[in-house]
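The instructor's notes for this session suggest beginning with a concrete chain rather than abstract definitions. Hand out the sequence below and ask the class to guess, before any prediction is shown, which regions might be ordered.
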Amino acid sequence: MKNGICLMLVFLTSFVGVSAQLKVDSLIEAQKYLSAYTLLERADQDNERPDVVLKKIDLALNYYLDSEYHRSFSFIDLRSGEVLQELREANMHGATPYLFNVDSILLDLIVVHPTDYRLHLSLANYYNKVYYDFGDRWGERSEILLDKSYSYYLKAYENGIYDYYSLYALGYYQTLSQNYFEAQRWFLKSLEVKPKEALTNYNLAVTYLFDGLPNKGISYSIKAYEMYADSLKKGDAARITGILYSKIGDNTQALNYFYRANELSPNYRPNQMYLLKSYLQLDKDSLAVQLAYEVLITTLHGPEIAEEYIEMFGQFNKEELLYQVFDRTLLTHSSDAEACGNICFHYGKVLYKKGRKHDSKQMIKRSKKYFLKVFDKNHQVFEAIDQMLNISAKKPY
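After discussion, reveal the predicted structure:
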């Protein structure tokens, strides 16, 4: 009789647990996050039941309205038409926050339930999230958070508990140490669990690029490109695909993907520069001159683009095209003395590089005249100009 009563109590406890679980899931589906968390809190206020604690953690980290460094969380029951992320961005606050020290609670539970490796996976996820959301601001150095996350992910995996994201994270951590072969191993395992995950495909492609194996990376970067919906991410995947194709010498396909990347993220400098390089490589001279001009006029006063142009156009022995870019810029921005000074200075450098010493010297002098209109004679730019003038008799570099 006594054994029968005990069995009945176990059955009832299990039944109540299943019933509560279904109700919590129903509340989450209805976006009643405060009600769901309140129900879980009543079910296990002391955080002693792993199943309930894991559900609370999932709810807290994914459906909170406001969080204090993921140590306390407030929630809200959404009304029709409300969007949780929009309320977060508006800095809305819910009911009185629940104090919920996730890591401390999980560490205590691991002592009591050392073979429940779901707890290790959850703890790894937690450290991973606070790393991304707060970094050093959370209270521990980012490196320590990463190490802890990696350690608990690995412990869970070694005991058969993992999901696509934990495998992805194990791979991503390896990329931080440039252990690309090991990273690839984890990314491939992650794709076995969830093949259609754009982020994993993208990062796997990148590791093959860095590892000098572009042929292996192309199919994964294309998959990422096809899967991403966000235009910026899709553009990044297109650019990586273009780079991979260029590495194997397929410049036509590279250009195709650089086109796509530039269309998805207009005026994004890396895409523009890769597209420009493809134009030069494929002898699309008029397109190269037009794009180079469009990019240059967005940053007329800085030296970076002009310096990159000298190297890029020189790589393909197409300095004559660069002269066209500089001439057009000087004509269209003749009233901007600082811009003209900057262009003339770099124009002089490329002329000198091509052995046109006299023309180079005249262009550098012209640069100085422009700069004197906007800068005091003690400005550092004149030191660079004087250096260029002093080496005019030397062998071109």
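Then share the key points. DSSP finds 20 helices and three strands in the chain. The CA atoms of residues 302 and 377 lie 19 Å apart.
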